[in-house]
Amino acid sequence: MIQWVQRLRIAFGTSFLWLVCLIYFTQGFRSFVWTAVSYQLKDGLKLSPSASQLVSSIAFFPWSIKPLYGILSDCIPIRGRKRVPYLVIATVLSLLPWLILGQISSLRSSRLPLMIILTVQNLGSAMADVVVDAMIAEAVRVERASFAGDLQSLSWMAMALGGICGSLLGGYALSNLQIETIFLLFSILPAIQLFSCGWVNEDSIGGKDLREYSKISHEENGNNTASDADNFAVEKSKTSSSRRKKIQKNSNKRSDITSKFQVPEKGGLLVSQWFQSLRTATYSLLRAFRQPIILRPMTWFLLAHVTVPNLSTIMFYYQTEFLNLEASFLGTTRVVGWLGLMLGTIVYNRYLKKMKLRKILMWSHVGLSVLGVLDMVLVSRTNAVLGVSDKVMVLCGSALSDAVNQFKFMPFLILSGQLCPPGIEGTLFALFMSINNFGSTLGSFVGAGLASFLNISSGSFDNLLLGVGIQVLCTFIPIAFLFLIPKEATGISA
Q: Keyword set for this entry (predicted)?
């Protein structure tokens, strides 16, 4: 472990690794403060489960438009730099909302102001996530592609460690501290992150470099995505000649289109350069998006969430109001989930890199359905008849399902990093992952709608068993769409 980290430190630098680990640690540690937000919505604002889930879904919407942040950071440098200035802006947006909520009680006690402030906070967190992902993609491309899995694994380990610490301390904090104190304490991490941005060096690009950079990124994007699509063909030997001709033909077309978009080098204004860069990056993004190797998995991402109602908020209400589980124990269940994530990351990198994605995803959903059945046992109170405590059921059910949900996306995270072409790393990686976030948001809306339709509310959980049963049946729907995943695709580096 120490040698692994040392090898990454030598390749990428101490300050860069520190910033990456800090940002991912902070993302995981968000469980510390968002547990308090959940209780504030339930106890402070007295919202119903469906209303609480609706507010949370809207607040997390900025994670669904991550490509927008990627386009801005890729194409519009601030004082000649593309990453660090945007990271500073994102960190400020992440820091200020917690300071405001910690100081002004009226804002955290009203639904609309609280939802707006939480949305701004998620905007900053999502932007920081995009920028650091782009920095990772750039660093891997400049150094060695073989570091892609190692650097991604280190990021996930840092996030898992943050999740464990945040979950453990979050439950304790809710039992011993005021909610405003929790908000203020969490603001320490974004403050450290803001300070750490000053230690990372980034090369400046000039106006001429920006124009050349736009052209190169546009051309290389088409070539890279086309070749990546070919890598997953089943019968390479039979079609290699025709594909080479097609790639060459598409490359010539892209060169012609790029020349049309170029701004004259003499007399070009800075705004025109930005506009030119935005147009070429957008075109490159659309070209990449149309590649089946990208479009088909992203479609599966979306369907895998939309077709399965998210009842997590409803289960949170059930566990706290009906089962009377304390906040410290619910924090422990999240720790189990994060530990499962860490174990899954290690197991994947050592043993599952060559396994087909279809098989991994199929068994993941089978596992999720089994864990859903455990939730049905809990809600039906069958476990009490069998003498099994509610705490054991929650640990074995919802906590482990979080780990499986995280584990099934590990191969896609590595694959998406491999498909990022030079110049639009932030945009394409963000687009790939925002499909997951947008799908999760839609799944939460579906879950809130299902809870409202079944008249599940605070203190009224009579139809919760039916709702969980519907969720279990829907878990099998994404398996029917696994044909969208390339048959020979694995998560191993090319």
A: Membrane, Transmembrane, Transmembrane helix, Transport
